[in-house]
Amino acid sequence: PYKYTTEELRVLRQCNKESFYQRSLPFAAVLGIGAYLGVQAGYFKGHKKYGPTLKVMGGAVIGYFLGKLSYQSKCAEKLMHLPNSPIGELLRRRKRGGQQETLEPGFSTGPALPSIGGAETYSDIGPQHDLDSGRPYMAGLDDSGRPTPDSESDKSPLLGR
């Protein structure tokens, strides 16, 4: 597993705190209050027993995650400004569209998610994704040519074909 540097941990803690106060909390409040007002105005139907509470909680949870998601690019910028950070170097290369390589064991820059709107594409078609490529071949156990009840090549007179 990757070992974070003290500077990376400091920036990640700072990003977590800032994303909560600057994005998640306001988004959660706006969506929660919006859900409450929507139920009161009749746009949403409140629960029979709990009223608008479930809608308000759902809006707050969605707002929290939207806030965290919206702060990712700002946090990535902060990590890119760290001088001796492998993560910062990885993010700088990705931003420039650089080549993908392994920085350390267990820390690969390989394709994790497709980029949205960029020139980088991801495809799962190719020999590296063949499911049988890592399986050892044992001649005595190969049953790929063995006839099955579903195969047309088996024209046995006992089966009445």
Structure description:
It is a single chain. The protein has 161 residues and is mainly α. Helix content is 46%, strand content 3%. The chain contains 4 helices and 2 strands, in the order H-H-H-H-E-E. Strands 1-2 form a two-stranded antiparallel ribbon. The termini are far apart.
The main sheet orders its strands as: 1-2
User: What class, by secondary structure content?
Assistant: mainly alpha
Residues in β-strands, percent: under 5%
Radius of gyration (Å):
27 Å
Largest sheet: 2 strands, antiparallel
**End-to-end separation:** 60 Å
Order of helices and strands: HHHHEE
Number of helices: 4
Please outline what is shown here.
By secondary structure, the protein is mainly alpha-helical. It is 46% helix and 3% strand.
